[in-house]
Design brief:
elongated, 30% helix, 4 helices, Nucleotidyltransferase, domain 5, two-stranded parallel ribbon, membrane, 8 strands, 6-stranded mixed beta sheet, 155 residues
Length: 155
């Protein structure tokens, strides 16, 4: 019969870290490619209402956003606590909407200008009078494709 004996003097080998820089650069490259940068900094707080039947927009590059909500705390001393309109990165009035739509159309290619959609991202507690005023200005600017942004209702 043979005897088995344990060799207690051996240690486990150290983990090789030679491939670690390759993995780190691969992850870095993945996140750089897949991350989208926010185009607009929100100056108003927007909690969009819930909806059950929603459809996701296909081409987000053909969408112009109009944000309506209460200004963030850092802007409340200047602008108050009433709902304000934000176009791109600045506060605006209802009268500025037509020029905003015109500039958004000019930024697009000629063949894509008719496909431009205006998305209203409105806080759920905003009064309907502000939204009606915005819709009237959009009609004057011939921006008739309108989208209301919502979030999925929990079932």
């Amino acid at each position: 019969m043979s005897k088995f004996r344990k060799e207690g003097g051996k240690e486990t080998p150290a983990i090789s870290t030679a491939s670690l820089p390759d993995i780190v650069f691969m992850l870095l490259f993945f996140f750089m490619v897949s991350t989208t940068m926010r185009e607009v900094d929100l100056n108003v707080s927007v909690l969009v209402p819930e909806a059950k039947e929603i459809v996701k927009l296909e081409k987000k590059d053909l969408v112009s956003n109009i944000y309506v909500g209460v200004p963030m705390r850092k802007f409340q001393k200047t602008f108050g606590t009433e709902p304000k309109i934000q176009l791109n990165d600045q506060f605006a009035t209802v009268d500025d909407i037509q020029s905003f739509i015109a500039s958004e159309r000019e930024a697009r290619k000629e063949e894509l200008r008719n496909k431009l959609t205006t998305s209203l991202k409105v806080d759920q507690y905003t009064k309907m009078g502000v939204i009606i005023d915005i819709k009237q200005e959009l009609r004057k600017a011939s921006a008739l494709k309108l989208n209301y942004s919502t979030r999925q209702a929990a079932e």
